[in-house]
Task: inverse folding
């Protein structure tokens, strides 16, 4: 009986999902415009992910410096490089405090969609001429 209920609930979910109804999808490129809230929440998630990665590498460096877990020279250089890269990325992700920065992200996303659309149209019109 359980597999039947599982199948029935799965069919119900498939039948009720009609795609993304929040925004219009560009028929040609499949692009769905992101909202400011989505962009900010994604950036917040990425900040947390990079902060966790940075903490892990800083722990490795501390363990090496204390002599607890020694790293090879190659590993040590990699850890230093990762720490520098993640600190830089976190500084970049802090730019979203400025609302103009988020506006530029939204505008860039729209521009990239238009460029993709133009490229698709150019390719499809070129294929028709052959």
Result:
């Amino acid at each position: 009986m359980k597999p039947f209920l599982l199948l029935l609930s799965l069919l119900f979910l498939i039948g009720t999902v009609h795609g993304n109804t929040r925004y219009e999808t560009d028929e040609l490129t499949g692009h769905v415009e992101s909202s400011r809230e989505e962009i900010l929440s994604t950036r917040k998630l990425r900040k947390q992910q990079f902060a966790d990665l940075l903490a892990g590498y800083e722990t490795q460096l501390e363990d090496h410096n204390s002599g607890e877990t020694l790293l090879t020279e190659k590993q040590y250089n990699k850890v230093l490089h990762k720490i520098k890269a993640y600190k830089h990325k976190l500084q970049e992700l802090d730019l979203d405090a400025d609302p103009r920065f988020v506006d530029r992200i939204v505008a860039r996303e729209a521009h990239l969609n238009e460029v993709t659309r133009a490229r698709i149209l150019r390719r499809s019109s070129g294929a028709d001429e052959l």
Observations:
- The two ends are 58 Å apart (CA to CA).
- Residues 15-21 have pLDDT under 50 and may be disordered.
- The CA atoms of residues 100 and 106 lie 10 Å apart.
- The chain has one domain: 21-129.
